[in-house]
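hey
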């Protein structure tokens, strides 16, 4: 079975949030949860597709994003400066 490639955005923190988009930019899923660990996060995202890119809104790469990229083999995208809401 071939998995669909997806782009992922993760906002780590006390309440972690993530968004999954297909390669055309169509939203697949948005969710947030308290105490969402790396293993559970990967499991939820991989059910929807194969992550090829993960992004964050912080210019300093958060550990969770780095670990996610290492475990899933996807590329990391970070901004030059912190993005504001």
């Amino acid at each position: 079975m071939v998995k669909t490639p997806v782009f992922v955005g993760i906002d780590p923190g006390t309440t972690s949030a993530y968004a999954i988009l297909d390669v055309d930019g169509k939203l697949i899923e948005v969710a947030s949860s308290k105490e969402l660990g790396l293993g559970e996060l990967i499991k939820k995202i991989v059910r929807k597709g194969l992550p090829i890119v993960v992004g964050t809104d912080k210019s300093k790469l958060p550990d969770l994003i780095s670990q996610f990229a290492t475990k899933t083999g996807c590329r990391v995208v970070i901004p030059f400066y912190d993005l504001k809401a």
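The two ends are 38 Å apart (CA to CA). DSSP finds two helices and five strands in the chain.
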